[in-house]
Amino acid sequence: MHSTILPLLTTLVSSAAAETVLGVYIFSRHGDRTAKSTPPSSLTDLGYAEVFTSGSYYRNRYVADDASRQIYGLNTDVVKQSQITASAPADAVLQNSAMGFLQGLYPPVGPTLGSSTLRNGTVVESPLSGYQLIPLEQVTTGANSENSAWLQGATNCANAQISSNNYFTSSQYLTTLANTHDFYNGLSPMINLTFAPGQTSFKNAYTIFDLLNVASIHNSSTKFPNADLLTPETFFQARTLADQHEFGLAYNESDPIRAVTGSIIAGEVVEALNNTITGNGKNKFNIQFGAYAGMMSFFGLANLTSVDADFYGVPDYASSLSWELVTNATVNASSFPSEDDISVRFYFHNGTTSASSEPREFPLFGTGRSPLPWNEFASKMGTFSISGQKQWCTACGNSTGVCSSSALGGGDASAGTSSAGSSSDNTGNGGISKAVAGVIGAMVTLGVVLGIELFILLAGGLKLVSKKRLARTTSIDSAPPGMGRGHVGAKV
């Protein structure tokens, strides 16, 4: 995504200064990393600094004593674990980015707060000057995404992968592929150590741009051959084509399942903020790290592209989306606002967030309004969000593994709901389950087969003989040609 964001629509009227912030959900991209085309990717020192800077900014916005939009009741210095939820997929770049962000959000508290006195009078100081440990939960989607050239492949959602693959047969893709043949041939001298001639095309638009971007930031002239060919105009063109390529894979208006990662994010946001409301503000701060594909999917689903064309682009490193839960009602220890008195503000920042480059507020769903009342926000998010394993399985068309009937508690994944009222699926209403019925059926069949075999043996005057005893008889030696000992034994 380009660094210039158009001003917020003039129809938005903000009364944020008079509000109380009850909670927040932040979805952030990782910091600067090594190239995807040379895995395994790793967070760089620059990337570490970027996410730490963003974490420090959000501390000054939501956490600190003098925070500009301090979250009501949130601990300012020593983290209270029940108030914060941090998560990331099983991916080194994303998990390390999350930890770097958290270090900025809740930095070491020093020897005064970071020490305790034991019963015997011994004073124990916390290591690393009061370094604060914040648990990092692991989300199930997006594992190893930063080593994956095609992020949709990390979702394990069958229908989403099929939908994204359809992009490669679309007229838009095929036209751009043909029209950019010469452009990508011109990039070959800079990337031919990584990409073969057959790979140097619009089909690999993002990974080619990613390699050039990483090289332009980190590589010296000796490690970046023909760097003089990467003019500002060429770099801009490579980036624009990468934006087009990735948005085409991340979202399609006529096939919403392509945006499955954005749907999952929407479900997680609503669930977390709803827990803040129903729990009277117990959980206040949620931060999740993920890949840019989820961001782009959400941009399409929430119709943010109608507000600013820059939402068609790939967000920069350390970019963040944030949803604030706000109220103008009175909030105190004995009074928490009702749902009718709560609203949601959405913010986005492209790249590292700091005091000199802050998030901007945008209206969601094409409403042209912000904030949105909580009930309206939750309802509109519900039109495309995915919550829960069963709903995900149904939307994705998956029916094995975690989506098998047994894994989902006996329900039919394809139906989206369990068959609790059916005697074939429910063991609690006097009926028998499919699994039990299957076992009974197998036993009955086996009994019938054995009975038939026994009848044949008795009727024919035959008897069972062990293989060892049979091997000692001369009948084996007179067996017809083509029937070996093993075959006769097996027949018995």
UniProtKB/TrEMBL annotation:
Keywords: Membrane, Signal, Transmembrane, Transmembrane helix. The chain crosses the membrane at residues 435-462. GO terms for molecular function: phosphatase activity. Residues 1-18 form the signal peptide. It holds the Pfam family His_Phos_2. Belongs to the histidine acid phosphatase family. This is Acid phosphatase. It comes from Exophiala bonariae. The lineage of its organism: Eukaryota, Fungi, Dikarya, Ascomycota, Pezizomycotina.
